[in-house]
Amino acid sequence: MNNQLQLPFQGWRRAEESSKHGSGGGKAPRIGLALSSGGARGLAHAGVIQVLEEEGIPITAIAGCSMGAYVGSLWAAGLSGADLEERAREIKDRATLKSLMDYIIPPSEGLIRGEKLRRHLERDLGEKTFADLDKPLIVIATDLDRLTPHVFDSGRVSHAVHASSAIPAVCAPVSLNGRRYTDGGASEPLPVTILKKRFHLDAVIAVNVMPAPDDFESKSDRGFMSEDKPAFQVFSRMFRTFWQKVNLLAYGNVLDTFRRALMAAQLHLIAKEEAAADVVIHPHFVTSTWHDFENFGQYLQAGRDAATAALPAVRALLETDTNLNQETISHEIAPSHTRLERHAA
Prior knowledge:
Radius of gyration: 20 Å
Keywords: Hydrolase, Lipid degradation, Lipid metabolism
Region (Disordered): 1-30
Active site: 66, 183
Strand content: 5-15%
Protein name: Patatin-like phospholipase family protein
Helix content: 40-55%
Organism: Prosthecobacter fluviatilis
């Protein structure tokens, strides 16, 4: 991880200057946006961004990991919230998603390479580097050799997002500059602290699309469940025993056990990072799975609803006197820290 972050880039200088001046010429607070990992749930990030744009909430810098890095990179590159929704709507069904899968046979490193998904992202990002972005962005991945979070802040953005989005055991690790990287969600699923320290921000809005521990306790979250479609219900009943043995993601099998263990660690890390945020927006999905991209409408609307509910707390951040020292700022903002959830039917 880079310990020092310099901002010599022209695009970032523009963002820095715009964050210094409010509508009356006064100094506006420096607010960051941290976007969590979460698979298809991460489409809710686009809904949150739409509301922030519509309400004119100034964002100084962005940090994202996994799906949060994917959405955050597109926004940092200049796509609007409406553009992000258009991209989400492209994955209209499971067949479209499968067309973006480059399967590994045999699956020794993972189930897919992820190269097709990276090229799909590059339709918008092209060969942009972090220096070319309209908004400052950092992308968090997990360094498999050092077993630590790694912050990408230079080089090709699409390569950093690919590394950050490489879901362990599902996607093969990504090799960059002689090191191997996997999903940033394994080490920093909600990068609030890193973002605040890197850009010396006054406040951070955290968007957490991961499930809450209570969801698993009540079995209201279906992130680890596969739903049989009507056409396959008879087949499923007849061959359930066989399918249970060959499907590595089935309940109790190796990838299911691995994902559950990883989720346990992630929820612990997220709780600590939520406590460090000034406003937490938490869209909640009862009937979601990590690969459920075709139900983009549900996620987008959940993000919009949660962000709209959070607007009073977000606007309170804009009223904070940034001339106060950081200790006073933290004390003043703490009462506005909120957790907002939306239960989708």
